[in-house]
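F.,

This is the one I mentioned.
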């Protein structure tokens, strides 16, 4: 470029190239005085050189192109760093310092080697202390994203600074003017194989790690970790893990035999670690769970270092959790889903004969906020490991995270483990914590569901475990499915609506058999139903409608069920009968209708077919607690 704009310099270069005197005499080159800076001393002469090249450096923030077209060339990098330090201090603006984090491959040598490593500036790496200012020029030393103009040698202008990111603007080329972010990037210097100093790079993607990659290091988070297993065809013990890199890529890792015990106190789920020197090998597609083609073997040579608490941890893995009320969409499909649920009951394990021969299964009943328990069948190795742990703490209602679970139609709806499934008990996830809190709030309700449903199992079109919640729109078909003279209890989840506020919410009854009587309050009489001397007492009765969003059912509630629902006694309801007490009834009804209830109903087809009996009998109710309040 200078040759085109400076004919004197152009002529000089041509004569120099042709070896013409007086420029070249006896292989000695004469440099014109106009191209030389007279030497006085190192400091003064260097300042004269800077002044000659950059003139008024304070004005370059206004005319960026003028600075970008000027440079001082040196034969050695050490001089580059010295001149850059002088230039950046002359440059106007506030100084920003960035420091490298130099690490020794052997962690035991870090304390000894760190200060020494900081003094080195290998080829292709910036200095340990990088000094920058707003509007100062910088140059990339590596290809970061060539398609976006971020290549080795790209020149940029600093526009803003963050802790680990430089906000810069591309100054030259087709992408000129584009704002980009330059993050802190791990580098591996090109060290000669004969050098006594070995260095390791920190990668950010498992895609960069192949069986041929050497001296690598990767920051990973443990997404899941299986119990210790024994191979089906060999006595070798193994343990499987899933690791996630900073970009979200997953890789399968495995430990064998003694390496499992030696790593027992590390590689905890959802903890971040630096892993290096793992044995990387191709993974047989038959055993591939993740999409990555390689598998990592963590052996005695693998270095595993926990990421310090004051250092940035990797994000927790994300799961596509499917709620119970969406299971129908996955029934009998090849889809494998992630499920988060509370374990409330576990059955004894049992032996069965499957298509592949004898095996062991065990059923766990799980539930979520839909209050619809479902049977999760665990097969084979999961019975020996996960089921054993769950059975030991089933009383605390642990939260279970299951991945790659199959939804089946056995008994209506059911879940089943697969060979590639993974399970975590009480995982440290926000969703699991929220579900655990919900289970604690609704502990009494869950206990009643377990106790009552084990005593009165429902006979349903699609029984799904201990008992199911039937939608109101399906009740008619449920009634038709019952055998003649058969009675059954079933559950719905609905709101209780009192339509007639002027109904009488009590009747006088025998305190022994609860049958109605014409006697007044506290009268003594001989009950002709139970044949016992009795006292007439008020007993609650309410005609209601149960609305679950799919339809309404007419029902009748008696006694303690009404008292529990309305939050008052039969005597209080008796004393608030009449139009003058209507506001009191309105307040009770309004509070009841705002809640959602788990309602157990008695189905008696013979009575329901009679004209005078069109109401379901409410056996019990439980308010569903809102854990978001």
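My design for it:
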């Amino acid at each position: 470029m200078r040759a085109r704009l400076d004919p004197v310099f152009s002529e000089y270069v041509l004569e120099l190239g042709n070896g013409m005197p007086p420029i070249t005499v006896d292989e000695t080159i004469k440099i014109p005085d106009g191209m030389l800076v007279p030497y006085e001393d190192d400091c003064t002469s260097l300042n004269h050189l800077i002044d000659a090249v950059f003139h008024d450096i304070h004005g370059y923030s206004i005319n960026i192109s003028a600075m970008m077209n000027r440079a001082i060339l040196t034969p050695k990098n050490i001089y580059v760093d010295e001149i850059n330090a002088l230039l950046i201090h002359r440059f106007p603006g506030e100084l920003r310092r960035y420091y490298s984090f130099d690490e020794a491959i052997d962690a035991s040598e870090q304390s000894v080697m760190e200060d020494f490593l900081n003094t080195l500036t290998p080829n292709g790496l910036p200095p340990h202390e990088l000094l920058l200012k707003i509007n100062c020029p910088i140059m990339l030393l590596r290809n970061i994203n060539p398609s976006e103009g971020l290549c080795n040698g790209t020149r940029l202008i600093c526009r803003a600074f963050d802790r680990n990111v430089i906000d810069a603007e591309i100054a030259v080329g087709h992408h000129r003017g584009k704002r980009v972010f330059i993050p802190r990037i791990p580098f591996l210097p090109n060290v000669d194989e004969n050098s006594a100093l070995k260095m390791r790079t920190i990668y950010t993607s498992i895609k960069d790690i192949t069986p041929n990659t050497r001296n690598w290091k990767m920051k990973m988070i443990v997404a899941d970790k299986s119990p210790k297993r024994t191979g089906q065809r060999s006595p070798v013990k193994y343990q499987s893990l899933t690791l996630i890199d900073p970009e979200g890529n997953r890789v399968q890792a495995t430990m064998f035999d003694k390496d499992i015990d030696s790593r027992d106190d590390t590689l905890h789920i959802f903890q971040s670690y630096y892993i290096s020197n793992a044995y990387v090998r191709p993974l047989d597609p038959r055993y591939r769970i993740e999409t990555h083609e390689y598998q990592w073997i963590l052996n005695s040579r693998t270095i595993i270092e926990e990421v310090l608490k004051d250092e940035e941890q990797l994000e927790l893995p994300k799961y596509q959790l499917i709620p119970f009320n969406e299971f129908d969409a996955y029934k009998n499909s090849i889809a494998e889903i992630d499920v988060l649920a509370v374990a409330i009951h576990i059955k004894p394990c049992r032996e069965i004969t499957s298509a592949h021969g004898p095996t062991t299964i065990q059923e766990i009943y799980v539930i979520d906020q839909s209050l619809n328990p479902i049977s999760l069948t665990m097969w084979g190795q999961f019975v020996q490991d996960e089921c054993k742990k769950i059975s030991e703490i089933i009383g605390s209602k642990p939260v279970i995270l299951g991945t790659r679970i199959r939804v089946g139609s056995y008994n209506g709806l059911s879940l089943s483990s697969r060979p590639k499934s993974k399970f975590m008990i009480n995982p440290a996830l926000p969703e699991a914590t929220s579900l655990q809190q919900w289970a604690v709030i609704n502990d009494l309700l869950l206990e009643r569901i377990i106790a009552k449903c084990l005593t009165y199992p429902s006979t349903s079109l699609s029984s799904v475990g201990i008992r199911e919640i039937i939608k109101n729109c399906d009740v008619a078909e449920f009634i038709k499915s019952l055998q003649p003279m058969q009675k059954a209890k079933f559950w719905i989840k609905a709101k209780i609506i009192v339509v007639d506020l002027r109904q009488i919410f009590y009747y006088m009854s025998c305190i022994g058999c609860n049958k109605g009587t014409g006697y007044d309050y506290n009268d003594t009489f001989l009950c002709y139903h139970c044949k016992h001397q009795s006292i007439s007492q008020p007993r609650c009765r309410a005609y209601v409608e149960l609305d679950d969003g799919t339809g309404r059912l007419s029902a009748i509630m008696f006694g303690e069920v009404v008292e529990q629902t309305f939050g008052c006694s039969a005597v209080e309801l008796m004393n608030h009968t009449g139009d003058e007490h209507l506001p009191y009834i309105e307040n009770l009804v309004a509070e009841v209708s705002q809640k959602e209830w788990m309602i157990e109903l008695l189905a008696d087809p013979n009575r329901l077919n009679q004209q005078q009996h069109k109401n379901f009998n409410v056996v019990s109710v439980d308010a569903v607690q809102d854990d978001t309040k």
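The first strand starts at residue 24 and ends at 25.

Talk soon.
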